[in-house]
Amino acid sequence: LLVPRYWEEGGAHEAIRPTRPLEDVEAEALHLGVLFTKKHLSAYRMIFKRFIASQMASSKALIRCYSIRAGGFEQVIRLPVAVVEDGFTKVLPLRTYSMPTKTEVVAPKSVKVYRGSLKPLPTVADAVRMMKEVGIGRPSTYAKAIENNRRHGYIVISKYRQNLIPTKRAGEVVKLVRTVAPELLTPRYTAKLMRLVEEVDTGIPYELAILLPVASYIEIELASLQVKNSGSGVSVAEGVGGEVR
Description:
7 helices
């Protein structure tokens, strides 16, 4: 079952790859007078098991497809029903399901109706993946960008699933910017602006050369549309047609 993996060089993740059994770590901690809590032990045990699993052979499982029909809707799901060949599942057991092999009609005991969306809310991981795909920011700035949006009241991060929930303020800002300067909402423009800002950090252009085109773009749009949002509590500019502040 052992299939060792090798890495060319170490990285930051090396610091969280435990390679010693939990009993040895506990014994050394007691010797040094360090008290571990249940959360410490649970976290170490989880990471240790994942590391051991990463050094094991692949597992094979039997997957069955099921078609569920109810109220005119149909949903196809794929579920593992049995482990055919053990590998890493010896350490990280795979949850299997006992499902009927023939068509069955099931009468529901109760029905609950929930209001939701067919498109799930993005998570923090989804946002990071999106920024990486469109070229916005760097790995060191992904978390900061999300935190800035949360701090300014544009998003709320759910406690358990880490979903990004847009606030009413975010909707008002997006609606206003879409009316005044829609180009600013495109990922392409954001990536371009961030590249220019990074060049400022390295001393390539002068900072004003970046800020003026952005300010001029907004000023031109405001002057042409004569937009001033005073009722929503979100203000883009004061003195339309004059100086943009």
